Amino acid sequence: MESKLLDRLGQTFRVEMPVADTLDSYLNAILPKVRPWSEDLREVNFFLNKPWIEIKDDDAFHDIVIHIFDPENRYYLSENGTVSGGRWKILPGNKLLILYEDDDDTPEYKGELFDLAFLDGDFFILRKSGASTFRFWMVEGKGRSYKDRWRDAVELLFKKSQSNISFYILIAAVVIMALMIFIVLR
């Protein structure tokens, strides 16, 4: 009986995954729902020294692209095993600056500025500053199996929001039941 009641209560608050055609469209729809559970860039333990595999919605994209950020502010980019790199820096406002080193031994850098869209132990999602495009990365251990299945990866991100909502509903139900027991026994 209690299980059915909790399931019904959970169904009331459950939201269906939005429908979209592109990765950016899905992320624009889903990120507002999962953003409350995102970490901050200052919590570097969530992204340092972890290989982040890039996931794209391009059916012709079959490369293995991995991004790594180390504690000395070095940035490594591996494209099918060919490594290049640069530097990274956290800026105020939860922004991440990535500077790419030129190949020709000049001290000039080209870079990109990103706003953090979402970060946890599995996902690292950046929005290019001033644009509506995202970089969607998953920690390599999980991400490799989703590399060519970007919709499944987005669905996994969406399910995180739903499992978090279910947890809060469960806590609320327990508190309400405890209050009811307290009132009845009083």
What is the overall silhouette? elongated
Q: Rg from C-alpha positions?
A: 20 Å
Count helical runs.
4
- In N-to-C order, the SSE pattern is HHEEEEEEEEHH
Catalogue the unreliable spans. Answer: none
Task: Specify the helix fraction band.
Answer: 25-40%
Class inferred from helices and paired strands: alpha+beta
Described by strand count, sense and barrel closure, the largest sheet is: 8 strands, antiparallel, barrel
What does this protein look like?
The protein has about 190 residues and is α+β, with helices and mostly antiparallel strands. Helix 2 runs parallel beside helix 4. The radius of gyration is 20 Å and the shape is elongated. The protein has four helices and eight strands, in the order ααββββββββαα. Helices cover about 35% and strands about 30% of the residues. The longest helix has about 35 residues, at about 150-185. It has helices spanning about 1-15, 25-35, 140-145, 150-185, and strands at about 50-55, 65-70, 75-80, 80-90, 95-100, 110-120, 125-130, 135-140. A hairpin with a 7-residue loop joins strand 5 and strand 6 (about 110-120). The chain has an eight-stranded antiparallel barrel with strand order 1-2-3-4-5-6-7-8.
